[in-house]
Automatic annotation (TrEMBL):
Alphabetical keyword list: Hydrolase
Active site: H11 (tele-phosphohistidine intermediate), E85 (proton donor/acceptor)
Protein name from the UniProt record: Phosphoglycerate mutase-like protein
Cellular component GO terms held in the UniProt record: cytosol
InterPro entries the UniProt entry points to: His_Pase_superF_clade-1, His_PPase_superfam, PG/BPGM_mutase_AS, Phosphoglycerate_Mutase
Length: 220
């Protein structure tokens, strides 16, 4: 039986997204389109009875989470630095084209190493989700947990959970891009076994255009 359903939401659009500028851990803010997207995902999740809410402590993620939780006033938002995007060193503030031309991010001594980023994302899952679920009182209905983070973090977390067989994939994923205000869902049981049941869904955004490139996504 599913003990908890985890809703992983990417933050809304920023001007850096629109202009294809690498953000990493720069503290950028939602633009007008990002606010609109956050309102749409909030509406889509309005009827979910969230029990807990987490977000990256960067403004674009925490603002998105705050807008979603306006419909869930009893849920206290917990902002965590562990949910931040990968720090991309000297490339932060540069263009996506410059990032592509740069080569391996690992060659930049000021950037967070890929293996360190993977370790951080998996540690967050282990401590804030898997072990936490074990401590929750059993009940007939699953707990619903909101997590708002970043494109690189969400895609890296899910791909590595799958690679390490910590979760199973029950939904086909052909495109690993994680769109602004997309919703990915993982169901987890009390024993820690989990399944990816939805990835980067943006059907709730309707005709709203999303930025298809993810300047701050890097999982190599």
């Amino acid at each position: 039986m599913t003990a908890a359903r985890i809703y992983l939401v990417r933050h809304g659009e920023t001007e850096a997204n629109r202009r294809e500028i690498v953000q990493g851990q720069l503290d950028t803010h939602l633009n007008e389109s990002g606010i609109e997207q956050a309102a749409l995902v909030s509406e889509a999740l309005q009827k979910i009875s969230f029990d807990e809410g987490y977000s990256s402590d960067l403004s674009r993620a925490s603002k998105t989470a705050e807008m979603i939780l306006e419909c869930h006033p009893r849920v206290q938002l917990r902002k965590q630095s562990g949910l931040r995007e990968r720090h991309l060193g000297s490339l932060q503030g540069q263009t996506h084209a410059r990032k592509r031309a740069f080569g391996s991010i690992n060659s930049d001594p000021t950037a967070e190493k890929a293996d360190a980023f993977v370790t951080r994302s998996l540690s967050w899952w282990e401590n804030s989700v898997r072990r936490h679920i074990e401590t929750l009182p059993e009940r007939a209905m699953p707990y619903h947990i909101l997590v708002v983070s970043h494109g690189g973090f969400i895609s890296t977390l899910i791909k590595n959970l799958l690679a390490k067989k910590r979760i199973a994939k029950v939904v086909s994923v052909d495109d690993w891009r994680c769109y602004n205000c997309s919703v990915s869902i993982i169901d987890i049981r009390k024993d820690g076994k989990a399944e990816l049941v939805q990835y980067s869904d943006i059907s709730h955004l309707g005709n709203s255009k999303v930025v298809e490139s993810n300047a701050d996504t890097e999982d190599k």
